[in-house]
Amino acid sequence: MTPLARTAHLVAARVRAVPPPVVDLAPAVVAFAAMVATRAATDPGDRLAIGVALSAIVATGLALRRRAPVIGYAVQTGALAVESLGLGPGELTPLVNLMGLYALGHGAARQRVLWGPVIMLPGILAYFGPDDGPALAPAGVVFLWLLVWAAGYTAARRRDAQAEARAEEERRMRQDAVADERTRIARELHDLVGHTLTVMLVRVGAARVVLDRDPGQARDILHGVEESGRAALDELDHVLGVLRPDATPDATPDPTDAQPGLASVPRLVERMAGTGTAVSVRIEPPADALPAGLDRAAYRIVQEALTNALRHGRAASVSVSARCDRGTVELVVSDDGAGPPPGYRPGRGLLGIAERAALFAGTVEHAARDGGGFRVRAVLPLP
User: Fold this and answer.
1) 36, 119, 173, 192 - which has most CB atoms within 10 Å?
2) Can you give the residue ranges of the Signal transduction histidine kinase subgroup 3 dimerisation and phosphoacceptor domain (predicted)?
3) What fold characterizes domain 183-243+259-381?
4) Model pTM?
Protein backbone atom coordinates (compact mmCIF):
# COMPACT_ATOMS: atom_id res chain seq x y z
CA MET A 1 0.00 0.00 0.00
CA THR A 2 1.41 3.39 -1.03
CA PRO A 3 1.80 6.18 1.56
CA LEU A 4 -1.02 8.15 -0.10
CA ALA A 5 -3.37 5.16 -0.05
CA ARG A 6 -2.42 4.43 3.56
CA THR A 7 -3.17 8.04 4.53
CA ALA A 8 -6.52 7.92 2.71
CA HIS A 9 -7.36 4.68 4.47
CA LEU A 10 -6.54 6.17 7.88
CA VAL A 11 -8.59 9.30 7.15
CA ALA A 12 -11.56 7.20 6.02
CA ALA A 13 -11.29 5.08 9.16
CA ARG A 14 -11.28 8.19 11.35
CA VAL A 15 -14.28 9.62 9.53
CA ARG A 16 -16.20 6.36 9.99
CA ALA A 17 -15.39 6.53 13.71
CA VAL A 18 -17.11 9.93 14.09
CA PRO A 19 -20.54 9.57 15.78
CA PRO A 20 -23.47 9.91 13.30
CA PRO A 21 -25.01 12.96 15.05
CA VAL A 22 -21.72 14.82 14.62
CA VAL A 23 -21.59 13.86 10.93
CA ASP A 24 -25.14 15.14 10.48
CA LEU A 25 -24.81 18.38 12.44
CA ALA A 26 -21.28 19.57 11.71
CA PRO A 27 -21.82 20.55 8.03
CA ALA A 28 -25.17 22.10 8.93
CA VAL A 29 -23.61 24.25 11.69
CA VAL A 30 -20.79 25.37 9.39
CA ALA A 31 -23.26 26.18 6.60
CA PHE A 32 -25.51 28.09 9.01
CA ALA A 33 -22.61 30.19 10.30
CA ALA A 34 -21.42 30.96 6.76
CA MET A 35 -24.91 31.95 5.56
CA VAL A 36 -25.52 34.19 8.58
CA ALA A 37 -22.13 35.88 8.15
CA THR A 38 -22.79 36.50 4.48
CA ARG A 39 -26.30 37.82 5.11
CA ALA A 40 -25.04 40.10 7.89
CA ALA A 41 -22.40 41.52 5.58
CA THR A 42 -24.78 42.18 2.68
CA ASP A 43 -28.05 42.99 4.49
CA PRO A 44 -27.40 44.23 8.04
CA GLY A 45 -30.74 45.97 8.35
CA ASP A 46 -34.01 45.10 10.02
CA ARG A 47 -34.49 42.01 7.82
CA LEU A 48 -31.39 40.30 9.20
CA ALA A 49 -33.42 38.40 11.81
CA ILE A 50 -35.65 36.96 9.07
CA GLY A 51 -32.55 36.00 7.08
CA VAL A 52 -31.05 34.27 10.12
CA ALA A 53 -34.28 32.31 10.65
CA LEU A 54 -34.39 31.23 7.01
CA SER A 55 -30.70 30.25 7.16
CA ALA A 56 -31.51 28.12 10.23
CA ILE A 57 -34.28 26.37 8.28
CA VAL A 58 -31.94 25.71 5.35
CA ALA A 59 -29.29 24.35 7.74
CA THR A 60 -31.89 22.16 9.44
CA GLY A 61 -32.79 20.65 6.06
CA LEU A 62 -29.10 19.93 5.47
CA ALA A 63 -28.88 18.22 8.88
CA LEU A 64 -31.70 15.89 7.75
CA ARG A 65 -29.89 14.92 4.56
CA ARG A 66 -29.12 11.37 5.77
CA ARG A 67 -32.11 10.60 7.97
CA ALA A 68 -34.81 12.05 5.68
CA PRO A 69 -33.20 13.30 2.45
CA VAL A 70 -36.44 14.10 0.60
CA ILE A 71 -38.00 16.01 3.51
CA GLY A 72 -34.71 17.77 4.24
CA TYR A 73 -34.32 18.91 0.65
CA ALA A 74 -37.95 20.05 0.48
CA VAL A 75 -37.40 22.15 3.64
CA GLN A 76 -34.24 23.65 2.14
CA THR A 77 -35.90 24.44 -1.16
CA GLY A 78 -38.91 26.04 0.56
CA ALA A 79 -36.65 28.29 2.64
CA LEU A 80 -34.60 29.12 -0.48
CA ALA A 81 -37.76 30.18 -2.33
CA VAL A 82 -39.01 32.36 0.56
CA GLU A 83 -35.59 33.97 0.94
CA SER A 84 -35.27 34.66 -2.79
CA LEU A 85 -38.75 36.19 -3.14
CA GLY A 86 -38.83 38.03 0.22
CA LEU A 87 -35.27 39.09 0.97
CA GLY A 88 -33.46 38.57 -2.26
CA PRO A 89 -31.25 35.66 -3.32
CA GLY A 90 -28.60 34.68 -0.80
CA GLU A 91 -25.06 34.06 -1.92
CA LEU A 92 -24.49 30.73 -0.14
CA THR A 93 -28.02 29.38 0.11
CA PRO A 94 -27.97 27.84 -3.41
CA LEU A 95 -24.71 26.00 -2.59
CA VAL A 96 -26.20 24.53 0.57
CA ASN A 97 -29.29 23.60 -1.46
CA LEU A 98 -27.01 21.90 -3.96
CA MET A 99 -25.50 19.81 -1.16
CA GLY A 100 -28.97 18.72 -0.13
CA LEU A 101 -29.84 17.75 -3.71
CA TYR A 102 -26.73 15.55 -3.95
CA ALA A 103 -27.60 13.97 -0.60
CA LEU A 104 -31.11 13.23 -1.88
CA GLY A 105 -29.77 11.52 -5.01
CA HIS A 106 -27.26 9.56 -2.93
CA GLY A 107 -29.33 8.65 0.10
CA ALA A 108 -33.01 8.49 -0.86
CA ALA A 109 -34.71 5.18 -1.60
CA ARG A 110 -35.05 4.28 -5.26
CA GLN A 111 -38.79 4.88 -5.31
CA ARG A 112 -38.34 8.39 -3.82
CA VAL A 113 -35.13 9.60 -5.42
CA LEU A 114 -36.99 11.04 -8.44
CA TRP A 115 -38.53 13.64 -6.17
CA GLY A 116 -35.20 15.52 -6.38
CA PRO A 117 -35.69 17.17 -9.80
CA VAL A 118 -39.36 17.83 -9.00
CA ILE A 119 -38.57 19.70 -5.77
CA MET A 120 -35.58 21.43 -7.38
CA LEU A 121 -37.49 23.33 -10.08
CA PRO A 122 -39.63 25.60 -7.82
CA GLY A 123 -36.53 26.65 -5.89
CA ILE A 124 -34.64 27.60 -9.05
CA LEU A 125 -37.63 29.47 -10.46
CA ALA A 126 -38.03 31.42 -7.21
CA TYR A 127 -34.31 32.18 -7.09
CA PHE A 128 -34.34 33.70 -10.58
CA GLY A 129 -37.85 35.15 -10.26
CA PRO A 130 -36.85 38.71 -9.38
CA ASP A 131 -34.15 38.68 -12.07
CA ASP A 132 -35.07 40.04 -15.52
CA GLY A 133 -31.95 38.63 -17.12
CA PRO A 134 -31.81 36.15 -20.01
CA ALA A 135 -33.35 32.68 -19.59
CA LEU A 136 -29.99 31.05 -20.40
CA ALA A 137 -28.78 31.45 -16.82
CA PRO A 138 -31.68 29.53 -15.21
CA ALA A 139 -31.35 26.83 -17.85
CA GLY A 140 -27.65 26.43 -17.08
CA VAL A 141 -28.38 26.25 -13.35
CA VAL A 142 -31.04 23.59 -13.94
CA PHE A 143 -28.55 21.56 -15.98
CA LEU A 144 -25.86 21.89 -13.27
CA TRP A 145 -28.31 20.92 -10.49
CA LEU A 146 -29.44 17.88 -12.49
CA LEU A 147 -25.80 16.85 -12.98
CA VAL A 148 -25.21 17.03 -9.23
CA TRP A 149 -28.38 15.03 -8.52
CA ALA A 150 -27.32 12.46 -11.17
CA ALA A 151 -23.86 12.21 -9.59
CA GLY A 152 -25.40 11.36 -6.23
CA TYR A 153 -27.82 8.91 -7.83
CA THR A 154 -25.00 7.18 -9.75
CA ALA A 155 -22.82 6.93 -6.64
CA ALA A 156 -25.72 5.38 -4.73
CA ARG A 157 -26.42 2.82 -7.43
CA ARG A 158 -22.72 1.92 -7.56
CA ARG A 159 -22.74 1.54 -3.77
CA ASP A 160 -25.84 -0.67 -3.93
CA ALA A 161 -24.31 -2.80 -6.69
CA GLN A 162 -21.13 -3.27 -4.66
CA ALA A 163 -23.14 -4.20 -1.57
CA GLU A 164 -25.17 -6.71 -3.59
CA ALA A 165 -21.97 -8.15 -5.05
CA ARG A 166 -20.47 -8.50 -1.56
CA ALA A 167 -23.65 -10.11 -0.26
CA GLU A 168 -23.68 -12.52 -3.20
CA GLU A 169 -20.02 -13.36 -2.63
CA GLU A 170 -20.66 -13.99 1.07
CA ARG A 171 -23.67 -16.16 0.21
CA ARG A 172 -21.63 -18.13 -2.30
CA MET A 173 -18.82 -18.56 0.23
CA ARG A 174 -21.30 -19.82 2.83
CA GLN A 175 -22.76 -22.25 0.30
CA ASP A 176 -19.28 -23.43 -0.67
CA ALA A 177 -18.35 -23.87 3.00
CA VAL A 178 -21.51 -25.92 3.61
CA ALA A 179 -20.89 -28.00 0.48
CA ASP A 180 -17.25 -28.58 1.45
CA GLU A 181 -18.28 -29.63 4.95
CA ARG A 182 -20.96 -31.97 3.62
CA THR A 183 -18.44 -33.47 1.20
CA ARG A 184 -15.92 -33.93 3.99
CA ILE A 185 -18.43 -35.65 6.25
CA ALA A 186 -19.71 -37.81 3.39
CA ARG A 187 -16.13 -38.79 2.57
CA GLU A 188 -15.39 -39.70 6.19
CA LEU A 189 -18.57 -41.74 6.49
CA HIS A 190 -17.98 -43.47 3.16
CA ASP A 191 -14.44 -44.45 4.07
CA LEU A 192 -15.32 -45.57 7.57
CA VAL A 193 -18.63 -47.34 6.98
CA GLY A 194 -17.65 -48.73 3.58
CA HIS A 195 -14.45 -50.27 4.85
CA THR A 196 -15.98 -51.68 8.02
CA LEU A 197 -18.99 -53.19 6.28
CA THR A 198 -16.79 -54.73 3.60
CA VAL A 199 -14.55 -56.36 6.21
CA MET A 200 -17.51 -57.53 8.28
CA LEU A 201 -19.34 -59.01 5.28
CA VAL A 202 -16.25 -60.89 4.11
CA ARG A 203 -15.57 -62.24 7.60
CA VAL A 204 -19.19 -63.24 8.18
CA GLY A 205 -19.09 -65.07 4.85
CA ALA A 206 -15.95 -66.89 5.95
CA ALA A 207 -17.60 -67.81 9.27
CA ARG A 208 -20.60 -69.24 7.42
CA VAL A 209 -18.32 -71.42 5.30
CA VAL A 210 -16.47 -72.95 8.28
CA LEU A 211 -19.37 -72.98 10.73
CA ASP A 212 -20.24 -76.69 10.35
CA ARG A 213 -16.66 -77.87 9.93
CA ASP A 214 -14.95 -75.79 12.61
CA PRO A 215 -17.32 -74.02 15.01
CA GLY A 216 -14.40 -72.74 17.09
CA GLN A 217 -12.86 -70.93 14.13
CA ALA A 218 -16.26 -69.54 13.19
CA ARG A 219 -16.67 -68.27 16.74
CA ASP A 220 -13.27 -66.54 16.56
CA ILE A 221 -14.18 -64.94 13.24
CA LEU A 222 -17.49 -63.67 14.60
CA HIS A 223 -15.70 -62.30 17.66
CA GLY A 224 -13.43 -60.38 15.28
CA VAL A 225 -16.51 -59.08 13.46
CA GLU A 226 -17.87 -57.85 16.78
CA GLU A 227 -14.60 -56.09 17.59
CA SER A 228 -14.56 -54.46 14.14
CA GLY A 229 -18.09 -53.21 14.67
CA ARG A 230 -17.24 -51.75 18.08
CA ALA A 231 -14.16 -50.00 16.72
CA ALA A 232 -16.17 -48.64 13.80
CA LEU A 233 -18.83 -47.30 16.16
CA ASP A 234 -16.17 -45.50 18.18
CA GLU A 235 -14.76 -43.91 15.02
CA LEU A 236 -18.23 -43.06 13.78
CA ASP A 237 -19.03 -41.33 17.06
CA HIS A 238 -15.87 -39.26 16.69
CA VAL A 239 -16.69 -38.30 13.09
CA LEU A 240 -20.24 -37.29 13.96
CA GLY A 241 -19.02 -35.39 17.00
CA VAL A 242 -18.30 -32.36 14.80
CA LEU A 243 -22.05 -32.06 14.21
CA ARG A 244 -22.89 -31.71 17.88
CA PRO A 245 -23.99 -28.18 18.88
CA ASP A 246 -21.63 -28.23 21.87
CA ALA A 247 -18.59 -29.13 19.75
CA THR A 248 -16.23 -26.15 19.55
CA PRO A 249 -12.90 -25.80 17.76
CA ASP A 250 -11.25 -24.65 20.98
CA ALA A 251 -12.38 -27.64 23.04
CA THR A 252 -9.60 -29.66 24.60
CA PRO A 253 -9.41 -33.02 22.77
CA ASP A 254 -9.87 -36.24 24.67
CA PRO A 255 -6.73 -38.37 24.27
CA THR A 256 -8.87 -41.50 24.15
CA ASP A 257 -10.78 -40.03 21.20
CA ALA A 258 -7.84 -39.41 18.90
CA GLN A 259 -8.22 -39.55 15.15
CA PRO A 260 -6.44 -42.43 13.40
CA GLY A 261 -3.20 -41.89 11.51
CA LEU A 262 -0.49 -43.92 9.81
CA ALA A 263 0.41 -45.46 13.17
CA SER A 264 -3.09 -46.96 13.23
CA VAL A 265 -2.67 -48.84 9.91
CA PRO A 266 -1.41 -52.06 11.57
CA ARG A 267 -4.49 -52.07 13.78
CA LEU A 268 -6.61 -51.52 10.68
CA VAL A 269 -4.98 -54.54 9.07
CA GLU A 270 -5.60 -56.65 12.18
CA ARG A 271 -9.32 -56.05 11.80
CA MET A 272 -9.07 -57.64 8.34
CA ALA A 273 -7.90 -60.95 9.77
CA GLY A 274 -10.25 -63.73 8.78
CA THR A 275 -11.22 -62.18 5.45
CA GLY A 276 -8.98 -64.57 3.53
CA THR A 277 -6.81 -61.71 2.28
CA ALA A 278 -3.20 -61.55 3.42
CA VAL A 279 -2.06 -57.99 4.03
CA SER A 280 1.57 -56.99 4.42
CA VAL A 281 2.44 -53.59 5.84
CA ARG A 282 5.67 -51.63 5.66
CA ILE A 283 5.63 -48.21 7.27
CA GLU A 284 8.73 -46.07 7.53
CA PRO A 285 7.85 -43.61 10.31
CA PRO A 286 8.74 -39.97 9.73
CA ALA A 287 11.49 -38.29 11.71
CA ASP A 288 8.98 -35.76 13.04
CA ALA A 289 5.30 -36.16 13.78
CA LEU A 290 3.06 -35.57 10.79
CA PRO A 291 0.44 -32.79 10.92
CA ALA A 292 -2.80 -34.22 12.28
CA GLY A 293 -4.85 -33.50 9.16
CA LEU A 294 -2.30 -35.00 6.79
CA ASP A 295 -1.77 -38.02 9.03
CA ARG A 296 -5.52 -38.69 9.10
CA ALA A 297 -5.79 -38.24 5.33
CA ALA A 298 -2.99 -40.78 4.77
CA TYR A 299 -4.80 -43.28 6.98
CA ARG A 300 -8.09 -42.79 5.12
CA ILE A 301 -6.37 -43.19 1.76
CA VAL A 302 -4.89 -46.53 2.84
CA GLN A 303 -8.22 -47.58 4.34
CA GLU A 304 -10.15 -46.86 1.14
CA ALA A 305 -7.54 -48.57 -1.04
CA LEU A 306 -7.80 -51.70 1.13
CA THR A 307 -11.60 -51.54 0.89
CA ASN A 308 -11.39 -51.47 -2.90
CA ALA A 309 -9.01 -54.43 -2.89
CA LEU A 310 -11.48 -56.48 -0.84
CA ARG A 311 -14.74 -55.33 -2.37
CA HIS A 312 -13.88 -55.04 -6.04
CA GLY A 313 -10.60 -56.86 -6.56
CA ARG A 314 -11.30 -59.84 -4.28
CA ALA A 315 -7.56 -59.97 -3.81
CA ALA A 316 -5.74 -62.83 -2.11
CA SER A 317 -2.91 -60.55 -0.97
CA VAL A 318 -2.39 -56.84 -0.57
CA SER A 319 0.78 -54.91 0.20
CA VAL A 320 0.76 -51.54 1.91
CA SER A 321 3.76 -49.25 2.10
CA ALA A 322 4.10 -45.77 3.55
CA ARG A 323 7.33 -43.85 3.23
CA CYS A 324 8.20 -40.35 4.39
CA ASP A 325 11.15 -39.01 2.45
CA ARG A 326 12.28 -35.79 0.77
CA GLY A 327 9.42 -33.73 2.07
CA THR A 328 6.66 -36.07 0.95
CA VAL A 329 4.57 -38.96 2.24
CA GLU A 330 4.29 -41.72 -0.38
CA LEU A 331 1.52 -44.29 0.01
CA VAL A 332 1.33 -47.37 -2.21
CA VAL A 333 -1.35 -50.07 -1.97
CA SER A 334 -1.07 -52.96 -4.43
CA ASP A 335 -3.17 -56.11 -4.72
CA ASP A 336 -3.21 -59.24 -6.84
CA GLY A 337 -6.96 -59.24 -7.41
CA ALA A 338 -9.00 -59.26 -10.57
CA GLY A 339 -8.06 -55.72 -11.46
CA PRO A 340 -10.34 -53.13 -13.08
CA PRO A 341 -12.21 -53.76 -16.33
CA PRO A 342 -10.96 -52.02 -19.47
CA GLY A 343 -11.91 -48.37 -19.60
CA TYR A 344 -12.94 -48.27 -15.94
CA ARG A 345 -14.02 -45.00 -14.41
CA PRO A 346 -13.17 -44.07 -10.79
CA GLY A 347 -15.98 -44.59 -8.33
CA ARG A 348 -16.70 -42.78 -5.09
CA GLY A 349 -13.82 -44.46 -3.30
CA LEU A 350 -11.11 -43.43 -5.76
CA LEU A 351 -12.66 -39.99 -6.11
CA GLY A 352 -12.57 -39.64 -2.33
CA ILE A 353 -8.89 -40.60 -2.33
CA ALA A 354 -8.19 -37.96 -4.99
CA GLU A 355 -10.13 -35.33 -3.01
CA ARG A 356 -8.21 -36.09 0.17
CA ALA A 357 -4.90 -35.82 -1.64
CA ALA A 358 -5.95 -32.58 -3.36
CA LEU A 359 -6.63 -30.97 0.01
CA PHE A 360 -2.90 -31.21 0.69
CA ALA A 361 -1.77 -30.43 -2.89
CA GLY A 362 -1.01 -34.11 -3.38
CA THR A 363 -1.31 -36.39 -6.39
CA VAL A 364 -2.91 -39.81 -6.91
CA GLU A 365 -2.20 -42.48 -9.51
CA HIS A 366 -4.22 -45.67 -9.93
CA ALA A 367 -4.06 -48.29 -12.63
CA ALA A 368 -4.09 -52.02 -13.32
CA ARG A 369 -0.87 -53.88 -12.55
CA ASP A 370 1.01 -55.89 -15.11
CA GLY A 371 0.03 -59.49 -14.55
CA GLY A 372 -3.22 -58.62 -12.75
CA GLY A 373 -4.30 -56.65 -9.75
CA PHE A 374 -4.57 -52.98 -8.99
CA ARG A 375 -2.21 -50.33 -7.65
CA VAL A 376 -2.94 -47.01 -5.94
CA ARG A 377 -0.15 -44.52 -5.30
CA ALA A 378 -0.64 -41.23 -3.48
CA VAL A 379 2.01 -38.61 -2.78
CA LEU A 380 1.30 -35.95 -0.17
CA PRO A 381 3.80 -33.10 0.21
CA LEU A 382 4.76 -32.18 3.75
CA PRO A 383 4.16 -28.56 4.77
Assistant:
1) 192
2) 181-247
3) Heat Shock Protein 90 (3.30.565)
4) 0.53
